Structure formats: C-alpha cells, structure tokens
Amino acid sequence: MMVMSSERDGPSMALIVRKDLKLSTGKIAVQCSHAAVQCSLIAKKKESRLFERWVNGGARKICLEIEDLESLKSLMSQAMGAGLVSYIVKDAGHTEIPPGTITVLGIGPSPRKTIDALIGDLKPY
User: What secondary structure does DSSP assign to 68-102, as a single string?
Assistant: First the structure.
C-alpha cells in the first residue's frame, strides 16, 4: 500500500507511557484515553484548524514507552518548548498506583514531523 504524502505529514498524537510503573493493560488503556481526550480538548480550543485536520485525517495516534518519570518530564519540557499541545496524566489513585502518580504524556495533535523529531528514539508500547 502506498502511503500518501498527506498521511505522513498530517497531524498526529503520541501517547507516551512510563514503563517503570508496570501498569496493567486496562490501566494503560484508561490512562492513554485520559491523555487523548485532554489533548483533544486543548487542541480544539487552541489549535482548531489543526484539530479539524487531525480528526478529518483519521485522528492518528501512536502509543510509545518511556523509561521513567525523569525521561517523561524531559520530553514534556521539549514538547512545551516546541509549542506542541501536551498533557500529563496524574492518576487519581483509586486502583493500582498512589494518587498523583504521573503515568502518561500526551503530545498533539500536532504536526507529525515535529512530534517525530521528539519521539524518534522511543519504542512502541
């Protein structure tokens, strides 16, 4: 299948999960969902044209893993410095981990090339 230029260059969202927490599959799904929803709401308000392009282009998302909290915070700083839509999920602490634990970083929807420049070294979750 040939990938169209617009698919490679269009907006994307990255969901970056801390692998040091050893979360259950269900917990990861919920935490990523929190990040995706919040990033979407932020983008719809602050970057409405980009948000519409992202939705109309299939709302591409990718889930990646990151080693630990320090690495996640560093990536968040880079994303914010680049002016990208970003959101950090802090868990409520009702199930597997203590309240306030940072679990996932959402980046985007933002230009895919810009996100890829930040996350290029991360592995798929």
Answer: -HHHHHHHHHHHHHTT--EEEEE---SSSS-TT-E
All domains in the chain, ordered by first residue: 10-124 (3.40.1490.10)
Model pTM score? 0.92
Cis, peptide link before residue 109, omega less than 30° from 0: yes
The dihedral built from the CA positions of residue 59, 80, 101 and 38, taken in this order, carries a sign that is negative
- Round to whole Å and give the CA distance between 77 and 51: 22
Please write the tens of the pLDDT for every residue from 21-58. 999 999 999 999 999 999 999 999 999 999 999 999 99
Taking the C-alpha atoms of residue 52 and residue 104, their distance in angstroms, rounded to an integer, is 24
CB 53 within 8 A of CB 6: no
Residue 31 to residue 90: CA distance in whole angstroms: 9
SS3 16: strand
